Amino acid sequence: MANAGGDILSNLMSGKRLAADIKACVKKRVEHLNTMGIDVGLALMQIGGTASSEQYLKTTVSVSATVGIKTYEYRLPDTASLNEIINNIHDINKDERIHGLLVLFPIPRRINPRRVVNAILPEKDIDGLGSVSVGMFAAEESMFQIFDKDDFTSIGGKSPAARDIACAPHGFLPCTPFGVVRLLEFYGVEIKGKNAVVIGKSLAVGKPLALMLLAKEATVTICHKSSEDLAAHLKRADIVCSATGVSGLIKGDMIKDGAAIVDIGINIMPDGSFAGDVDFKSVAPKASFITPVPGGVGPVTIATLLENTLRSAQNNALLKTPLILP
Ligand SMILES: NC(=O)c1ccc[n+]([C@@H]2O[C@H](COP(=O)([O-])OP(=O)(O)OC[C@H]3O[C@@H](n4cnc5c(N)ncnc54)[C@H](OP(=O)(O)O)[C@@H]3O)[C@@H](O)[C@H]2O)c1
Fold this sequence. Notes:
Blueprint: H1 15-35, E1 41-47, H2 51-66, E2 70-76, H3 82-94, E3 100-103, H4 113-118, H5 131-138, H6 153-156, H7 160-167, H8 175-186, E4 195-199, H9 206-215, E5 219-223, H10 230-235, E6 239-242, E7 260-263, E8 267-268, E9 274-275, H11 280-283, E10 289-290, H12 297-320
Parallel strand pairs: 1-2, 1-3, 4-5, 4-6, 6-7, 7-10
Antiparallel strand pairs: 8-9
Helix pairs in contact: 1-12, 7-12, 8-9, 8-12
């Protein structure tokens, strides 16, 4: 699988094509719900905010519009109390127009992020970070999402929507790691039986990604700040997924020839440009596949978020009025 000649364009895992496929499918299903008089709604909550969360909010709002999902912005000041934040989340939980809520990180350090994500109803926890969603995922009750729908034909009959719901009425997978697995599969990267190294162990990215790769039967190693000799782990890896936020952490001499590299990190450089965790110049010529930053994991994350929002709306519609879905 090594990239003969180091042609860095032929081995690029762009997220744009996959994201376009996902969005086209979401758009069609949103339109179908619209014909039933149902609008799909996504709430985005920013508390304080940074340049990167502002950028993410704006991008998500504009991409949502392209698939017909209505967005509701909740911009709370940096000084908002936990009580105010949770009251706003309770309002969103009760709001019938809203099917999913994404809280943009980072949030002010004085606020316990677990209190915030756990206030979101599991049915609306479309980034799967609340304790109920994490528990369902760890228990493999919502893991079905990362497998082909055909694997579930026996569970819910012929309709894909009905099958999803038959598998789990709620319990969404975190969008970024789910997007990484989809991207690897979209480009035909074999996961089963391979050595995968995930760098980073956050609840939003590294940890769930490691569990998903494990579910796909990779042999998984998780590295973090205290891991000794990162290069020794990377040298054995067929798949490297990095989510640290440390630019230039992974260099070409640390990876095995032909490894597939997924760069999840987003770092804003002093000149305002974006860079990942991977030193693209030295790593790309050795990699079988590599994601660019930007344009790799990011677009798939947003497309997956919209897909989860749609699924939440479908679940809600089906639970209230069965038989209206295709
Ligand atoms: N593309 C996307 O859609 C997307 C989505 C979400 C996040 N991101 C990006 O992904 C990155 C990670 O996000 P996150 O939320 O997971 O961040 P996070 O919560 O800060 O976690 C970073 C992880 O990286 C580990 N780490 C930091 N420095 C390291 C080093 N030198 N060697 C090995 N491990 C190291 C940390 O280890 P310890 O646990 O030991 O501290 C931690 O587990 C950020 O750049 C973020 O912007 C991208």
